Amino acid sequence: MRQELEEKNEESKVCFKELSKPGKEPLFKLEEKEMLQIPGIEEVKDQTPENWYQTYNLSLDGYSMFPQPDPISQEEKAEIVKRFLHGLKKLLSPKSNWTFIRPLKLSLENCVRCNTCADACHLYLASGRKEVYRPNFRSEILRKIYEKHFTLTGKLNALLGEEIDITYDLIRRLFELAYRCTLCRRCVLYCPIGVDNGLIARELRKLFSQELGWAPPEVHQKGTRLHLKAGSSTGMNPQGIKDTISFLEEEIAEKTGKKIKIPVDKKGAEYLFIHNAGEYISWPDHMEAFFILFDAAGINYTISSEPLGYDGVNYGAWYDDVELARIAVNHLKIAHSLGVKKILVGECGHAHKVFCVILDRLLPASSPLAEIKRESCLPLVWEIVKSGKLKLDPSRNDFYFTLHDSCNIVRLMGIVKPQREVLNRIVPPGRFREMNPNGVKNYCCGGGSGFAIMGSLNFPTFRKKVGIKVKLCQIMETFQDVLKEDKIKLVVATCSNCKGTIREMEHTYHLFEKYKITHCGLVDLVVNAMVDIPPFLNFEEML
After folding, report:
1. How do residues 320-367 score in pLDDT, each as one tens digit?
2. Burial class (CB in 10 A: 0-12, 13-18, 19+), 429
3. Contact between 131 and 108 (Cβ < 8 Å)
4. 394-404 residue pLDDT tens
5. Which of 42, 80, 309, 447 makes an SS bond possible with 501, Cβ 3.0 to 4.6 Å?
6. Which SUPFAM superfamilies does the UniProt record give (predicted)?
7. Is the pTM of this model over 0.85?
8. Which of 381, 399, 409, 403 has its CA nearest to residue 535?
9. DSSP 8-state symbol, 441
10. Could you give the 3-state DSSP secondary structure of residue 326?
């Protein structure tokens, strides 16, 4: 064991030195014969234009999500290195990074380099165990940079020539490495001492955004900036949400025969219901399901038409504390102005993370906004189902099922049982099968932390070839014994981001055409089982 670790550490040293070297050519390219192969699945072809290797910086692994050109002069490059080091100093300063400083420093200082985290990482496994995708690889680079510039031991090691060179090329590749992680934090679950390499990757992203202004355009310009400007990261403005609500009310009446009035800007409700606004556009039937369920169960809720108030996503969770705080505080102000008791978070994993976890670290206890409770919709849905208020017929959901556990809802927050209890009440016996592994040990869908929406340059190819591969393999294995049956096989996902990624799997690998594999949310199935309305699910709309 000791010899294996020493050999692995020597291999890392070679990689570290390579990262500092100038050049446009990728340090390595992914080899299909080494990558995860799935029987019955045809590989995605890499069609990166040859001229991109000189036009853009693809010098890590041949992929990038950042179309910004490199600076030309050495002075500009030196300034970027200087600003990076300044940002690193702030990142490890309690005054500048009070929100995450403690877990960050503990994780940086206590890694024993056992590499147990590696085999927990879906990206590392799918790539064919490429060294640079090890969760603690980027952490080790950051650690070495910090030691060299801010500790006596590191400076002495540098004099002996044992450390890496801090160059622009290293910084640029480290930026790419920060986005070769979906922040799923499965690695921390398997680490013997709880080192959080997912947090380190996220804090690295923060450094690049807040100090250098580097972030994928879909996350920043088309994400938090658009959210703050228009009211939603989808671009939907307040009039747009009002028009959408009217449309949903009409559709609900057509589908169910029930005229439901969706409460908008209602004062003093129990809940302010905030979902990912992308659902209104991509899965309107899912939003209808929530409103049908709430109406049938007599839930006292409202939605907001105020800018930001109808879109619960917060891309700042992936890369920037300032952007996160601007959006989150606005959400709380809207809830406070409506006089609601709680914010109810819809089926959106990253919204769960911000509302139910990060805001507790961000808000001063003295703020009246901190008194607004925030909770997941999943326990409430289970309370509704088990209350007996609804007449449910499981035979209506005569499909095969599996459940994808969202990283942020399940692994981060520990909400494991409610969604399973609901499924056991609304699907026929023997139809539900668990993935292996499942629960807190489940694999990321491959679209977390912005992966699902990052479409610049050739990053979508990386996502399809590497990011989603392990989850795709899991789904295929779960349905292996029924793949050839002409019956629908549903992957239930309680997160918008996960559903979007699974939908991409379906389209990329023709899963529905070949195997009748598709996806849906949890609430959709509950409503589909309600006996007093016609069957609700429409798979043509969901594909």
Report:
1. 999 999 999 999 999 999 999 999 999 999 999 999 999 988 888 888
2. exposed
3. no
4. 999 999 999 99
5. 447
6. alpha-helical ferredoxin
7. yes
8. 399
9. G
10. helix
